[in-house]
């Protein structure tokens, strides 16, 4: 039986809605670990996982990407981003953390990082207690000099609740300004030892394409409380292709990660299925 995992965020729904079998939903970092351990055969996970461990096959043509502001991958800050002395990192996604590192270096910004640890009751940082969606930017620095990286549903909820208190440095927007290319956040990865690669890739591709072609029906199937936001989020913020532009942006991300020593060498060649 196929063991499939998927990120537990709203942005994944166009790629998983209607899957006929069981799905394991979790945070990106947990799914990456389970995929690497052989506990899952295929998973929609952080794109950096392929760059870090290029043993997997990538399901071609579909991804979770953006070509401009993505809304749900942001740094929450009070003063100007150039004044930030410390940024607490959400540990759930290596992709977003490494994208932030690359963007800051390109802007010649050098804040220090406080790394959190994802747990069942929240996130314990080195400078204080934070909960997903409710970060308490604690520490010795003035609040105006601290910021927090937020991703996924936590970022959405925090933005909606605290829009008047914070500014939001959107990493998708900053990437597009830097490169002129889309950014790829997540990909379907299949373990090399799974025998049914072609069949599952085609099924996932068809599922995603059908959902994207029928966005009205997909949005109508969501809880009423989020339908209006999904109309904006799915249509205006996200894109779900993995075509030539997305692949070029992904390649450039890999090159920047090599330059910043986040990867050991030349970015790996894509293994598509």
Topology of helices and strands:
Layout: E1 4-7, H1 13-16, E2 24-26, H2 28-36, E3 42-46, H3 48-52, E4 57-58, E5 61-66, E6 73-77, E7 86-89, H4 94-106, E8 112-115, E9 117-119, E10 122-125, E11 128-130, E12 146-151, H5 152-162, E13 167-170, H6 171-179, E14 183-190, H7 197-213, H8 215-220, H9 224-237, E15 239-242, H10 244-259
Parallel strand pairs: 1-2, 1-3, 7-8, 7-12
Antiparallel strand pairs: 3-14, 4-14, 5-14, 5-15, 6-12, 6-13, 9-10, 10-11
The first-level CATH class of the largest domain is given as Alpha Beta
What is the overall silhouette? globular
Amount of beta strand: 15-25%
Order of helices and strands: EHEHEHEEEEHEEEEEHEHEHHHEH
Helix percentage range: 25-40%
CATH superfamily of the largest domain: Periplasmic binding protein-like II
What is the strand tally? 15
Tally of discrete structural domains? 2
Judging by the overall fold, what is the CATH architecture of the largest domain?
3-Layer(aba) Sandwich
What is the typical, i.e. mean, pLDDT? 89
Based on secondary structure, the structural category is alpha/beta
What is the assembly state of the chains in this entry? Answer: single chain
Distance between the termini: 20 Å
Low-pLDDT sequence parts: 117-141
- Biggest pleated sheet: 7 strands, mixed
Radius of gyration, whole Å: 18 Å
User: How many H/I helices?
Assistant: 10
């Amino acid at each position: 039986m196929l063991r499939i995992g998927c990120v537990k965020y709203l942005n994944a729904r166009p790629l998983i809605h209607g899957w006929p079998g069981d799905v394991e939903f979790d945070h990106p970092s947990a799914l990456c670990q389970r995929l690497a351990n052989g506990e899952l055969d295929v998973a929609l996970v952080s794109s950096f996982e392929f760059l870090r461990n290029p043993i997997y096959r990538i399901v071609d043509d579909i991804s979770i990407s953006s070509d401009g502001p993505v809304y749900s991958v942001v740094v929450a800050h009070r003063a100007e981003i150039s004044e930030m002395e410390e940024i607490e990192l959400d540990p759930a996604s290596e992709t977003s953390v490494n994208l932030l590192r690359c963007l800051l270096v390109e802007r010649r910004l050098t804040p220090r990082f406080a790394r959190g640890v994802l747990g069942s009751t929240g996130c314990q940082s080195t400078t204080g207690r934070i909960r997903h969606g409710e970060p308490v930017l604690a520490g010795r620095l003035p609040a105006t000099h601290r910021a927090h990286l937020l991703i996924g549903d936590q970022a959405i909820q925090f933005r909606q609740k605290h829009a008047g208190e914070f500014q939001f440095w959107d990493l998708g927007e900053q990437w597009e300004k830097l490169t002129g290319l889309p950014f790829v956040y997540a990909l379907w990865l299949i373990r090399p030892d799974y025998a049914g690669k072609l069949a599952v890739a085609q099924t996932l591709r068809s599922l995603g394409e059908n959902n994207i072609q029928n966005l009205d029906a997909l949005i109508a199937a969501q809880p009423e409380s989020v339908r209006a936001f999904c109309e904006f989020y799915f249509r205006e913020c996200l894109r779900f292709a993995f075509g030539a532009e997305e692949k070029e942006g992904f390649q450039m991300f890999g090159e920047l990660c090599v330059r910043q020593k986040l990867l050991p060498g030349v970015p790996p060649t894509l293994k598509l299925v």
